[in-house]
Amino acid sequence: MNKLDKPTLKLLEKKFLNIQKNIEENLLNLNAKDSTSIKENWKRKEGGGGKSISISGDVIEKAAANFSTISGNNLPTSSSGSNNKSTIKKSKFHAIGVSVISHPSNPFSPTSHMNVRIFMELDKNNFIKNWWVGGGYDLTPFFESKKDAFFWHQAAKNTLDSYNKKYYKKFAQTCDEYFFLPHRKEQRGIGGIFFDQFQHKDIDSSINLLNDVAESYIEAYKKIVERSKNKRFSKLDKDFQLYRRGRYVEFNLLFDRGTKFGIESNGRTESILASLPPKVEWPYPKSKHIIKREKKLLQFINKKWNERT
Predict the structure, then answer these.
(1) Residue 230 pLDDT
(2) How many C-beta atoms surround the C-beta of residue 173 within 10 A?
(3) Which of 217, 231, 267, 307 is most buried (most C-beta within 10 Å)?
């Protein structure tokens, strides 16, 4: 693949749209009743657009599965993970990706996040002069489950081992480093895998890897939710879930590069913020119950789960 002509772009977009569709269908199937999917196509003045899907029901309280295909003449700083704008060259680019976040209703079902993307730097004739892929997935539980943690990481390892047995350890470590809230000095969850500015052989092989990562994510997450969605919970359990959802909001708005890229590239604000939970609380002062529960949870999520797989 040397040139990003219209047929090539359409083919790439179709592959990412198929990822989005598969995840949408699986999340909808988790709901037993009141399952809805709201879809909206949008366009961007500078070039490109996307398809936003909002999912809700009795099990998945709110989920967003967003596809975007973005072009421009100035590569945003957030695309490289660098905070130093002087290291970013002014470059024509095209980026395609799918981002997913799921907030279940039951506090014993964890929140999850997944994204896959490709960036391509182009010359004036649309020949690809540089490219890289990125993505991964992570899990944010509200209650401890060693079974879920081991299963989650093993699923990621099994998928990556089929490409390169060194990938899992590297990507899992990067995930722990990335999904960290420095102002809280805590992990957002139990981690998973995360990679960026990465090339696996050629573009086609890298897209295959992204597809398998997305498939691994939804299959693992679906099984975790299926075995926890009917657990009984109390109002105190729900209160704790709403409080801990705040950690996701803080990370997403303060540190997440996907959010920053969407804003910097003049993306659609409604789609960028669609991943935020429907209900969240920052109680002040914290109740004794929350303090006790949080201490136990932090001992669980701050473990190096990638080293236990």
Answers:
(1) 96
(2) 16
(3) 217
Token pair for 28: 């909808």
Burial 239-264 (b: 16+ CB within 10 A, else e): bbbbbbbebbebbbeebbbbbbbbeb
- Note the pLDDT tens digit of each residue in 187-221: 999 999 999 999 999 999 999 999 999 999 999 99
Which residue type sits at 62?
Answer: K
For the chain, the structural domain boundaries read 6-308
**Which parts of the chain register pLDDT below 50?**
82-88
How does DSSP classify residue 86? G
Distances (CA, A) of 198 to 74, 85, 116, 144, 151: 20, 20, 12, 32, 25
- The residues annotated as belonging to the active site are 113
Element (DSSP H or E) covering residue 157: helix 146-161
What pLDDT is recorded for position 76?
64
Q: In what order do the strands lie in the sheet with 48-56?
A: 36-43, 48-56, 60-72, 92-104, 111-122, 128-140, 191-198
Taking only the tens place, the pLDDT of each residue in 94-120 is 999 999 999 999 999 999 999 999 999
What 3-state DSSP class applies to 112?
Answer: strand
Predicted local distance difference test score (pLDDT) of residue 78: 56
CATH tag for 6-308 (out of 1.10.10.10, 3.40.1500.10, 3.10.20.90, 3.40.50.150)? 3.40.1500.10
Amino acid 77: pLDDT:
62
CB-count exposure of residue 144 (10 Å: 0-12, 13-18, 19+) = middle
At residue 108, the 3 state secondary structure works out as: coil
Which two tokens mark 129? 């002069």
Res 271: pLDDT? 77
